């Protein structure tokens, strides 16, 4: 699992930062999942190592323009990029109607299937490898944060021990590797779990933007390996954060601390902290690290490999 930041500015793009989008690359499945799709996201993808043709799912947090204005253009390009498998879209009420009207008035026709799912707090999807859940954040419009959890896997299978027990190789090994209870041809019953090491704990990732500090974000981020949380404002501008229902650097750090997250990436920065201004982004990082030391500033095209704990 690898995350790549495609846009880390809030509201409007700057010369060095595009508006919101984060990609989650799943190389074991040759898939890319997107979280938000601000204007210019497809250009950011073209400047990255990610393949547009591998995008299979897009998760939208809310319907503000800096999170969705790039969606229609990207979807129109995906068919030309060779994506014929289809794309599933997940987001708040209004997403399907927005796409419908964009297609209608631009007379755009997709050459591949698109399915739109309106999310609600709780489980969003579950497959053989992952679960995705969401919860309502605290913003001016209906907004959801997302949690992606890789399922635990059976530990290392001890082939040598299986051979010493006289277990014949073949399909039986596959069942034992999955921890199943298997009856051998000689009548013995072997518990596959006894031949496997400790379970490999799945990796976890949470994406929370836009929101002021809220318990829902803490719940979504419980014990995650990586939390991506908005940090629109400095602690010195907390009044603006409360007025606009955005987070400060210290609020994001509080969420990470209370959730026992492994690491925190701050993103969605106000352009007011550009070089030359009284407060810089490095000041926001210092504010966050005073509460949660393992915090980092995200920047466009930063890629980070999410590793398993321990």
UniProtKB/TrEMBL annotation:
GO terms for molecular function: 3'-tRNA processing endoribonuclease activity; identical protein binding; zinc ion binding. Zn(2+) 1 binds at residues 62, 64, 139, 210. Its cofactor is Zn(2+). Binds 2 Zn(2+) ions. The active site is at 66 (proton acceptor). Zinc phosphodiesterase, which displays some tRNA 3'-processing endonuclease activity. Probably involved in tRNA maturation, by removing a 3'-trailer from precursor tRNA. Homodimer. This is Ribonuclease Z. The gene is rnz.
